[in-house]
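Here is an idea for our session: we take a single protein and study its fold together. To get us started, please write out a protein record for me. Once you have written the record down, we can walk along the chain together.
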Amino acid sequence: MVRVTPPDFELWLTGYVRALAAAEEIDVDVDNVEPDDLTVEMERPLIVLRDDSGPRRDVPTFDRSVGATVLGGSKAFPKPINDIARWLSAVLSDEAIVTAPDSPIASVELDGFNGPYPVNDALDVARRYQTAQYTVVGSW
């Protein structure tokens, strides 16, 4: 049997989105967890990328589902968060992600993309959620 380790996809994807946001002057924080002490007075919008895993496809490849949250601003004025969520949707579904440096992505599975759509939050922040789907390659 061949031992193949799945990639640390969450780590790679957060770094990729963080670098693109900086290069395109999108003023956001990007992380893989939402802070426990989240308050309404957010300095900048936050993108949270979560690897929800998925089944193994064959020896070297794995399905990976990603949950992506964008939050910030206020419920009364969600447009800046909507704009960032749509930007993120374009980034995550762009086929260029496959050929990005060190990308573990073999293919973008467009039928696994949903959103972004609003999600209610107890805090007075605009929250948008979306999903993305990929096939990724592990390492030998």
